[in-house]
Design brief:
The protein has 406 residues and is an all-alpha fold. The chain has one domain: Growth Hormone, Chain: A. The chain is 79% helix and 0% strand. The protein is built from 18 helices and no strands. The chain has helices at 16-47, 50-59, 62-77, 80-104, 109-137, 143-171, 176-193, 208-221, 223-244, 246-254, 259-283, 289-302, 313-324, 328-331, 333-341, 347-376, 378-396, 400-403. Helix 1 (16-47) runs antiparallel to helix 5 (109-137) and helix 6 crosses helix 15 (333-341). The longest helix has 32 residues, at 16-47. The radius of gyration is 20 Å and the shape is globular.
């Protein structure tokens, strides 16, 4: 694979174990993008309520709030590979339950909420283990490329997922999407099974509360890390609810289209994010990560504003693809900053803290979005979050410790 050395973005793939982790993520995220389409649409079909859809979606984020830091401590004290495998098995089993319960006629909205809770529990364990493992697998000096490549795989999966979803919906029905997702997590389990990952041995046995306290003290001691968490919270509060819950509402209520159009819109997201990640991973190796993150937040917000004006599906897709170009400017430098600036034995907990922040604010944002869409309309919601999201990057520019991180 010597040809990989000529392509900055692909350099991490020289490592066999990184290739396994990356391949598993492509498969799992492809299934997960199908799940996101299926579960939101199924909630709307079962309830017909935009507010309840937002609230049930929010329930799925509770594990990160309730368990995230403790699961991060678990990641720092044990075998990260085994924890990733356990998380994949849990999610595969829960995803099989959804279509089986629906076929039996006893699936309720609250069972869907419970399933989302368990799936999120798996993610709250898997994600910090994966992110903390990247420095052990990526070649020296290629962390930004490695994270951009992981984000690229996520965005490529988001493109593949809606295409598969459209085909599955045409051939079968809505619940068939969940069978495909269960198979994807089973495939991810197999790739992780064959991965070799050196185990991080903690310097001492860490008690759960002690572990949480150590992570929180780090954010106070290292000001840039606390600033990163604060801006992450604000940005996700403004952006994530409208981005997730607002999309199916916009398609259904404003454009009067169905699930296939929703899948097409998710594909537009994927095209934009994939393009942005490829450009950043190939050209952004020497860019200052702190400044890239802050510029990304500003552009991420401002590019939502055109959705207030778009008249049809074509221009909606164009606006979403342009907006999605900016997302990798946030998603790639943030983990690279953590992997370079946080000690290896603390990274599982810090990534869990970031995940707690992201998921917690996303849950609150999702709950508020459903109500706001009913009260003022989804177009107005997009207009408001455009300015609100951009303000996060503007605020962050005054935080010199974070802004000057390389």
């Amino acid at each position: 694979m010597s040809w990989l050395s000529k392509l900055t973005l692909l350099q991490p793939l020289r490592n066999r174990n990184f290739r396994l982790l990356w391949a598993g993520q492509v498969i799992a995220w492809t299934g997960d993008s199908i799940y996101q389409i299926g579960v939101l649409w199924l909630i709307l079909e079962l309830t017909g309520s935009q507010s309840l859809a937002g609230l049930i979606a929010a329930v799925g984020y509770l594990p990160a709030l309730l368990l995230g830091l403790f699961l991060g401590a678990l990641v720092d004290s044990g075998d990260r590979r085994r924890y990733m495998m356990a998380a994949d098995l849990l999610r595969a089993a829960v995803l099989l339950y959804i279509p089986l319960a629906f076929a039996a006629g006893f699936l309720t909205p609250w069972q869907l909420a419970g399933a989302a809770f368990l799936i999120s529990t798996g993610a709250a364990l898997f994600n910090p283990a994966r992110d903390a493992s990247v420095p052990q697998l990526a070649p020296t000096g290629s962390l930004l490329s490695a994270n951009a490549l992981i984000q690229t795989s996520a965005h490529a999966a988001m493109l593949l997922g809606p295409l598969f979803a459209a085909g599955i919906l045409a051939l079968f029905n809505l619940t068939a999407l969940f069978y495909f997702d269960a198979l994807a997590y089973a495939a991810s389990f197999i790739t992780i099974f064959f991965l070799y990952l050196p185990r991080i041995t903690p310097a001492q046995v860490i008690r759960p509360l002690q572990a949480v306290g150590e992570a929180l003290r780090f954010t106070v001691r290292e000001r840039w890390s606390g600033q990163l968490l604060l801006l992450t919270a604000l940005n996700n509060l403004w952006i994530m609810g409208p981005a997730l819950v607002g999309a199916p509402i916009f398609i259904r209520e404003e454009l009067h289209l169905g699930a296939t159009a929703f899948a097409a819109l998710e594909a537009c997201y994927a095209v934009g994010m994939l393009t942005g990640a490829l450009l950043l991973g190939s050209l952004g190796k020497n860019l200052p990560k702190g400044k890239v993150l802050l510029v990304g937040m500003i552009l991420d917000g401002l590019t939502f504003i055109p959705l207030y004006f778009v008249p049809n599906m074509f221009w909606t897709g164009v606006a979403i693809a342009f907006h999605a170009l900016m997302i990798p400017l946030i998603m790639a430098p943030r983990p690279a900053l953590i992997q370079e600036g946080v000690p290896a034995g603390l990274q599982g907990r810090f990534f869990a803290l970031v995940n707690l922040t992201v998921i917690g604010m996303t849950a609150l944002s999702a709950a508020v979005t459903g109500v706001a869409c009913e009260k003022i309309g989804v177009r107005t919601v997009y207009l408001i979050i455009g300015f609100g999201g951009a303000s996060c990057g503007v605020i962050g520019w005054s935080m010199k410790e974070l802004r000057n991180r390389d």
